[in-house]
Amino acid sequence: MRTTVATVYSSLDGVVDHPEKWSLPYFNEQAAAYQTELLSRSDVLLQGRRTYEGFAPYWSAPSDDAYNDRMYEIPKVLVSRTLTEGTWHNTTTVTDDPVAAVEKLRIDGDGDGDGDGDGHILTYGFGSIAYALAEAGLLDEVHVWVHPVLARTAGPEDLMFSPGDQLVRFTHAGATTLDTGVTILRLVAEPRA
Asked: What start-end ranges are recorded for coiled-coil regions in this protein (predicted)?
């Protein structure tokens, strides 16, 4: 069965929206190697509309770079109520319940009914899809990239921490500190009671 993994950039004050405004000075070869390894272990990329619209133009063609090539080739699942068709290479669009779509992807990778799901479903960021998966018990692992910066630019919708009525617990499974001061926390979901 596939596991679902979220990787998210966060400022010290919990801002996860528009990381390109504050995270770029902290991206180095170590960060690139970590992201490339995470992407190479994944066999499906799950995205909401906002992430999709940010990523698709940037990785719209194959290249000589391993990360860029994998980002272009990996099967992508776009979850959106407003975009009914994805134009990025190898994209399938889901317009209904993302939780049901991920439940199916976790069990049956290619949709042929033989239950051959294996590897990781990777999602970038921590928006409504990640929250829905966490609350449904379908988010297995989170990699939180804590950047040593106070972004101070966000409203409540831009924060990793949002109000909700369901407690979701994670266990610390490791940490990696980059030379730039970024600490990547690897957290694994605790089993539900």
From this structure: none
Average pLDDT over residues 115-141: 87
Dist CA 64 CA 105 (whole Å): 29
| Global model pTM greater than 0.70 | yes
β-bridge pairing 120-124 and 42-48: parallel
All structural domains of the chain with their residue ranges: 3-171
Output the CA–CA distances (angstroms, integers) from residue 87 to 83, 92, 93, 101, 161, in the order listed: 10, 9, 10, 19, 31
Q: What span, in angstroms and rounded, lies between the C-alpha atoms of 95 and 47?
A: 12
178 close to 159: Cβ distance less than 8 angstroms: no
The CATH homologous superfamily for domain 3-171 is Dihydrofolate Reductase, subunit A (3.40.430.10)
Percent of the chain with pLDDT over 90: 54
Please answer whether residues 149 and 13 qualify as being in contact, where contact means their C-beta atoms are separated by less than 8 angstroms.
Answer: no
Q: How many residues does the chain have?
A: 193
Among 76, 28, 68, smallest CA distance to 51 is for 76
> How far is residue 98's CA from residue 129's CA, in Å, rounded to a whole number?
7
Spatial separation of the C-alpha atoms in residues 160 and 10, rounded to whole Å: 7
